[in-house]
Write a structure and sequence with these properties.
Keywords: Cell membrane, Membrane, Transmembrane, Transmembrane helix
Distance between the termini: 20 Å
Membrane topology: Multi-pass membrane protein
CATH topology of the largest domain: Growth Hormone, Chain: A
Shape: globular
Strand content: under 5%
CATH superfamily of the largest domain: MFS general substrate transporter like domains
Radius of gyration: 21 Å
Oligomer: single chain
Pfam families: MFS_1
Protein name: MFS family arabinose efflux permease
Number of strands: 0
InterPro entries: MFS, MFS_dom, MFS_Efflux_Transporters, MFS_trans_sf
Helix content: over 70%
Order of helices and strands: HHHHHHHHHHHHHHHHHH
Number of helices: 18
Structural class: mainly alpha
Length: about 400
């Protein structure tokens, strides 16, 4: 039996999907989506501009990039249950420290710790956990996880806003720390245990040296480097686009001529559109190779830009929906395409490595796209079109022969 075949004693995938999905929805909300609501209040309390808070957040995103491969390798070896439980403790500790910061230096230190937690506890870790439990049958679980995750901002932003207004930003961080300790830690403790490596026959495709050393190390990826490079380029491009929009979409729509109210209302459509895109992908393309889903989805970005350029403020709603549909599918593809191209063996480590460039692009996106928007206004859309074109070119250079 292969190491990454479904565990005979594992619970039904739908139950695991719900546990991992709820965990992702609340973990994204308790860290990644906090600065959008709390940055101004944090900066005002500490006597620093909000940009300093976002700089600390960017540091956390960089830490995420280099934490992912280590966390993925641990999940490959031990399963996701202990790793995700450890990240709940890291999240809680980071949030408690964040609630107590008094200086900019302490702010950066708290976000550094939260970066470690995010790097080992967000999507890539959940995807690797699913693959470790269910092998190549994990695609449906990955889709389900992203359906829950698509509502992270929809759930967390109103809650965090209410907490900010009711108890202040420091106690808001403490409430989210309690969510990690009292809700998510017990939830992740009920995840199925991955089979011990000693109890499983090694996958036959691996040589004796690799069997002895565990999941494939980086040097075992030779012969796959071209495909890995194309996937890494694709993921970096789409994460740059996605993070740029999550940081600046209301402002971009306002630049197109929309009122502040209309811009926020249109931006709110992104979350439901992402979920709709993921449902449509699973309903119509689940039997197709994920490469086709990726090729279709990446066209949503330039299509959205054309709508906004062509119709101005009136096209804001269409822009948000087109972007959300494409971005929603691409989030699923980030988990399913490497699985289809390379298989389940060593998935966690490989996924972590693939996402290093994406996380670095993500860290730079708020600043770079903000600068482009400030200088070129609606012309900043060409930056997104260029990134989408890069991703599309890389995807058409790939071939699904490894599937």
């Amino acid at each position: 039996m292969s190491l990454f075949s479904p565990n005979p004693g594992a619970e039904r995938p739908v139950l695991t999907t719900c546990k991992l999905g709820v965990g992702q929805m609340l973990s994204w909300g308790s860290a990644f989506y906090l600065p959008a609501i709390l940055a101004g209040a944090m900066g005002g309390s500490l006597g620093v501009p909000a940009s300093r808070v976002f700089a600390a957040f960017s540091l956390a995103l960089l830490v995420m990039a280099f934490t992912g491969p280590v966390a993925g390798r641990l999940i490959d070896r031990w399963g996701g249950r202990p790793v995700l439980m450890a990240t709940n403790l890291l999240f809680a500790l980071g949030l408690v420290l964040l609630s107590r910061v008094q200086t900019a230096g302490q702010l950066f230190a708290a976000w550094l710790l939260l970066g470690l937690a995010m790097g080992a506890g967000l999507y890539e870790a959940a995807f690797a956990t699913a693959v470790r439990l269910y092998g190549k049958e994990a695609r449906g679980v990955i889709v389900g996880i992203t359906l829950f995750g698509g509502f992270a901002s929809t759930v967390s932003w109103p809650i965090t806003t209410w907490l900010l207004q009711s108890v202040g930003w420091r106690d808001a961080c403490l409430v989210w720390a309690c969510v990690q300790l009292l809700v998510l830690l017990p939830l992740h403790a009920t995840l199925p245990r991955a089979q011990p490596r000693q109890a499983i026959e090694p996958a036959p495709a691996l040589d004796d040296a690799t069997r002895a050393s565990g999941p494939p190390p980086v040097v075992a990826l030779r012969g796959q480097l071209g495909t890995l490079a194309l996937l890494a380029l694709t993921f970096a491009s789409v994460w740059f686009i996605g993070t740029s929009m999550m940081s600046h979409l209301p402002r971009l729509l306002a630049v197109s001529g929309a009122t502040a109210t209309a811009a926020v209302a249109a931006a709110a459509l992104v979350g439901p559109a992402q979920v709709a895109g993921r449902i449509a992908d699973y309903a119509f393309l689940r039997r197709a190779h994920p490469l086709w889903s990726a090729r279709i989805a990446v066209m949503g970005y330039p299509l959205a830009a054309l709508v906004l350029v062509g119709f101005g403020a009136a096209g804001g709603w269409g822009y948000a929906v087109a972007f959300g549909l494409g971005n929603g599918i691409m989030t699923v593809v980030i988990g399913t395409l490497p699985l289809a191209m390379f298989g389940a063996q060593g998935y966690g480590q490989r996924q972590g490595l693939l996402m290093v460039p994406a996380r670095m692009a993500q860290a730079s996106a708020p600043f770079l796209f903000g600068l482009a928007l400030e200088r070129w206004h609606l012309g900043a859309l060409w930056v997104l079109v260029a990134a989408a074109s890069t991703a599309a070119t890389a995807l058409w250079c790939l071939r699904p022969k490894q599937a």
